[in-house]
Design brief:
By secondary structure, the protein is mainly β. The protein has no helices and 27 strands.
């Protein structure tokens, strides 16, 4: 029976001299998912459980992967639009090509997907999904794409060049969040002991003892990365996660983040929180409610 997070990448925090972070885990059955995140449905988000966030750098489309399915929240909150079936997308990540996403989780009402769904892929922006592998076997709570393929965790950290064949990674940690970028084979994993870093597409890993203990992490480009601590403190790296600089802070309990590199200026970081959707366009210093989500 695979282990899964009681809330998507949720940590219970206790700071000592070493700032030790304790991650709460729970065994999941193959039946109903156990997401227990605090409700955000009244805070400008269409769902109580946000598991993933994606912003298209070319079209500015904002998508939320949630307990109730995939939602387009680019327009004002009253016009949040569900895309595709109502499936619990516990794991969610964007690929390099426009409109291509990978996901995992549990089927919702009326879905003909197996439980758990294994790895599924959409090539039409989330409208329809195809089954790639491990249907009825894996509920990947952490997913990332890198230059050489896909990295995923379902109780075992695994890598795949095509989403169909899998190999176990050399790792002895439990990732809360996996993050990668199609430009590079550098992959990051947030864990209770600190930030793990891979430079070979997730096959082998090393703990970065100099990095802050972050709960969430997201690539804006192959080298620019944001990390967020459990208390909302934001950190920024320009060297693919080797060194970090403290920037601003996010209010509210963060559930998911993503980052976007624009053609000019500093990258943007987006966050879905218990208080709603926020964005920083100045490299993580100041966060505001985006105009489209007011």
């Amino acid at each position: 029976m695979p282990l899964c997070f009681m809330t998507r990448g949720r940590f219970a925090v206790g700071f000592s001299a070493a700032a030790v972070l304790v991650m709460t885990l729970s065994a999941c059955s193959s039946g109903s998912p156990v997401a227990t995140a605090p409700s955000t449905a009244g805070a400008g988000l269409p769902s109580s459980h946000v598991h993933g966030l994606s912003v298209n750098s070319q079209t500015d489309q904002v998508l939320l992967a949630t307990h109730e399915g995939l939602f387009d929240v680019t327009k004002p909150k009253s016009s949040a639009t569900q895309i595709g079936e109502t499936n619990d997308l516990m794991g969610f990540t964007a690929a390099a090509d426009q409109g291509v996403f990978y996901a995992s989780g549990h089927p919702g009402p009326g879905s003909d997907m197996p439980n758990p769904m294994g790895l599924i892929r959409s090539v039409d922006g989330g409208k329809t999904w195809e089954q790639l592998s491990r249907q009825g076997e894996s509920d990947f709570h952490a997913l990332a794409t890198a230059k050489s393929g896909i990295i995923a965790y379902d109780g075992t950290l695994q890598t795949s060049p095509d989403g169909k064949t899998w190999s176990p990674a050399t790792a002895d940690f439990v990732p809360a969040v996996l993050a990668g970028n199609p430009e590079t084979d550098t992959v990051l994993a947030t864990t209770r002991d600190g930030l793990q870093r891979s430079t070979d597409g997730g096959k082998t890993w090393a703990l970065n003892t100099e990095a802050p203990i972050v709960q969430f992490v997201a690539f804006a480009s192959g080298t620019e990365i944001f990390g967020v601590e459990p208390d909302g403190a934001v950190h920024y790296s320009t060297d693919a996660g080797s060194t970090w600089t403290r920037t601003g802070s996010i209010k509210g309990q963060v559930q998911a983040i993503t980052a976007v590199k624009k053609t000019e200026g500093k990258p943007a970081i987006w966050a879905a929180t218990t208080e709603g959707l926020v964005v920083s366009t100045d490299g993580g210093n100041i966060f505001r409610t985006p105009p489209t989500a007011r």
